[in-house]
Each structure stands twice: as structure tokens, then as C-alpha cells.
Specification:
The strands form two sheets. A four-stranded antiparallel sheet has the order 3-2-1-5, covered by helices on one side. It has a four-stranded antiparallel sheet with strand order 4-6-7-8, covered by helices on one side. It is α+β, with helices and mostly antiparallel strands. The chain is elongated and about 90 Å long. It has one domain: minor pseudopilin epsh fold. 40% of the residues lie in helices and 27% in strands.
Length: 159
């Protein structure tokens, strides 16, 4: 039949030489070097994610600015004297950004619970002539921050 293992675990352990101090130091230095190379990648991932979230918000603001240029056409077509311009509202407690026109919710966007977004205004509005309520969104992830700034003439930039 099959061969049986001869010897015991105690004999096997007795045959193995002990780990020396040099072996231990080499192993620890290799682990430290690998950790030193890998850790910056984790912080770079946070930075890339933060830049991505800022870019997404930037493009959403551009979208709101673009659709606001058509509010005059909506006003004429519906025959109303006043049509509310589209505006962006930040719902920090629900991690959402809402796009409203008047009382009507046009759409909403959510973001991750580990991302914090704050704004110095209750809402950001763009008018058909391109002007906007000046404001600044601050996006933070851990200890990193990025800002999306809207100036009075409707320009949007990321800092």
C-alpha cells in the first residue's frame, strides 16, 4: 500500500535550525521596504478619488449652467411671466445634490458617505445670461480637500 511517515513532529522540528538574528532583520527590512513602496499608492488613490469627485461636480455645474440658458425659451413657450431658474441644492445629511426648477425636482445625484461636500451658499443658481450666484463647494476625503468655485459671471473652476 502507501508509505507511512516515519518519525514524529518533534523529530521534524528538531531537524529545523533556528531563525537567526540576521534572517529576522532581513525579513523585517524587506517588509518595511514593501510597506514604504505601497503606502503612497493608498494616499494617491484618495487623491485621485477626490479629483474625480471634484470633476464630476464641475461637470454637473456646467450642465446646470447650460440648461439655464434655455429658461427664456421655456418662459416664452409656457407664457408665464416668471420661470424659476434651475438651481443646485446640497443635501448634506442625505449625501445628495438636488437639481430643482421651482418646486419641481429635476434630478438628484448622490455621492459616497466617506466624501464630505459643503457649500457656503444654500443654493447655486445660474441665470439665462450666464451669471450665477457666487459660491464655493468644498469636497473633502480624509485630510485632503478640493474646491469647486463658481464666480458671479458663471465661470466654474477647480482648485
Amino acid at each position: 500500500m502507501g508509505k507511512r511517515c516515519v518519525g514524529s513532529l518533534a523529530e521534524f522540528v528538531a531537524d529545523i535550525r533556528g531563525v537567526g538574528l540576521v534572517d529576522l532583520l532581513v525579513t523585517i527590512s524587506i517588509i518595511a521596504a514593501l510597506t514604504g513602496m505601497i503606502m503612497p499608492l493608498f494616499t494617491a488613490v484618495d487623491q485621485f478619488r477626490l479629483e474625480y469627485e471634484a470633476s464630476v461636480l464641475y461637470h454637473r455645474l456646467k450642465y446646470v449652467r447650460e440648461i439655464s440658458t434655455y429658461t427664456d425659451y421655456f418662459k416664452e413657450a409656457e407664457g408665464r411671466t416668471y420661470e424659476p431658474v434651475p438651481r443646485l441644492i446640497l443635501e448634506e445629511s442625505q449625501h445628495k445634490i438636488l437639481l430643482r426648477s421651482g418646486k419641481k425636482l429635476l434630478t438628484s445625484w448622490s455621492y459616497g458617505s466617506d466624501i464630505n461636500i459643503s457649500c457656503n451658499r444654500a443654493e447655486i443658481m445660474f441665470w439665462p445670461n450666464g451669471e450665477a450666484t457666487a459660491g464655493m463647494y468644498t469636497i473633502s476625503l480624509g485630510d485632503k480637500q478640493s474646491r469647486v468655485i463658481i464666480d458671479r459671471v458663471g465661470r466654474i473652476r477647480i482648485e
